[in-house]
Give the backbone structure.
Amino acid sequence: MTSDKTARMKELAELLDKASKAYYSQDRELMSNYEYDALYDELVSLEEETGIVMAGSPTQKVGYEAAESLVKEAHETPALSLDKTKEVSALAAFLGDQEGILSWKLDGLTIVTTYENGMLQKAVTRGNGEIGEVVTANARTFQNLPLTIPFTGKLVLRGEAVIKYSDFERINQELPDTDAKYKNPRNLCSGSVRVLDPSVTAARSVNYVVFSLVSVQTDNPQEAPDFLNSNEQKFLWLQSLGFEVVPYQMVTSETVQEAVESYSRRILTYDIPSDGLVLLMDDIAYGESLGRTAKFPRNAIAFKWQDEIAETTLTEVEWSPSRTGLINPVAVFEPVELEGTTVTRASLHNLSIIEGLRLGIGDTITVYKANMIIPQIAENLTGRNDLPVPKTCPACQGPTAIRDENGVRTLICPNPECPAKKIKLFVDFVSRNAMNIDGISEETLVKFIDRGFIREFSDIYRLERYQEEIKALAGFGEKSYDNLIASVNASRNTQCWRLVNALGITGIGQANARVICRYFQNDLAKLCNADTEELMQIDGIGQVLAEEITQYFADPEHQRELEELLKELTFTDQSREEPRQTLQGLTFVITGSLEHYENRDALKAEIESLGGKVAGSVSSKTSYLINNDILSGSSKNQKAKQLGIPIITEEEYRRMIPE
């Protein structure tokens, strides 16, 4: 019997080690937090029951050794993790008759910072608790981390590098590639701090929140702090030096339950990711007298939220192709109420997760919100283990393949022409300066491509074939569908240059598209049949661009796609007389706010339609700087004055153009 338990302990250790390595060193997830905690607790229980602790057991290690990409350094004081509980009664028992500090357990990347002579000297990640990675240059870009402090001794702190939910949403939206988007703020933060280029960290709005004063040394008696044997006094002193410390609340065994309930209500709107609470003894001497185990200090304990778990039925697994070729599975289940919201979906991440859960349609599953926010499947109670894995890609219908990397199995589409891999082309096609189809976001395009509604540009104008399917999609309905179709139909009457810009020809943007169409008098057939020599006669079109254009229109597949697209469109500018080129040879720069034009793009479009050019910065080639605030001290105004370039208002510009 003992041999069976020993074998299980070895199995658990191997599973936890793999998951820990992926999480701490590779920013990947092999299993949910719920599953990891359950396996870890099982291992602890077996070790206590058998009295056997294997060398290298995850219960004796703090984390996984840092990645090789950054310089490593040993910590002066080991950065230990904390013992944990999910029972409020255990917190009360832990305190006894002592007073404690209850604070958020922040979910980011732990960083140890060292100050000497009033200046930040180094920042090192927690790593495996003994050895971390030096990220000093990156830490200097943290938004709220003091680089100098009014203390000249040596100060060592531990804190959490975090990215707020509000910043996480903004950064993810700004990432152009759907597959570059991060699953959660913790992964984004870890990836942002552990990079070699500090400019990347600087752009990610990383904050640093201190949760522990490790050590303080000074030869100057006048600046030596007196903490009055209180950890709260440490927090207050650190605040006086300019550090942001973790929000906390003083508690006793009688008040800790009420405090936990207060935190549990606030986490739903708290902007910084948190995966629980930390309870620290306020009495420094008493806490130190408790000592430590091989892994945990005994003066503090972590509280993890008692996950609200609901039982439901798995109704579908959606397979979502992406531009990297990964086909991502998402579980769809009967609606359940969790943490005050209705939940119907949860990411399954990869095939390994699906296989571990032994999923099948109709299975009874339990779901929860990790950190009370992110939906996850906790357990499969029936285990049909018969979920079919798609043999063909939903987007292109080509054969799929299974890839195994580092023990993680994923489903991929190997077809290089899969429309899911060309999502940026479709995003550009519907954009304001192309076909200007309002209301079709990248997220909507991804949904339509995933389901095979869109495979080429012309399919956007034939979405009515999928009327019922679109109305049934999450986030859609009768009104949304009607608005979508109205926007599509409104774009059917367009201008030649918009279509040329929308096709995604390498090197051709809005300005070039306008110039080219003007040259061919908006006759698309002439453009399609033009050779390289003729195209090179157009102002601003060199040999490289000319060859890109001819190669594009010579491609039989492009010809077929364009022919289908032209069946859906009408050009409004083919029969119109071209405006006089009154601005030919003039180059403008636009800055400041506008009064007569919707935006700068609108003014730029008018200038280009009249033969002029618009540049982004003032140079000796600039003819006029348009700025309604002529007296502004802006850098563009200063440069224009330095070069003797006229600064004109909108009104002055409008007097230059024909009525």
About this structure: Residues 494-571 form a domain with the DNA polymerase; domain 1 fold (CATH 1.10.150.20). The mean pLDDT is 86.
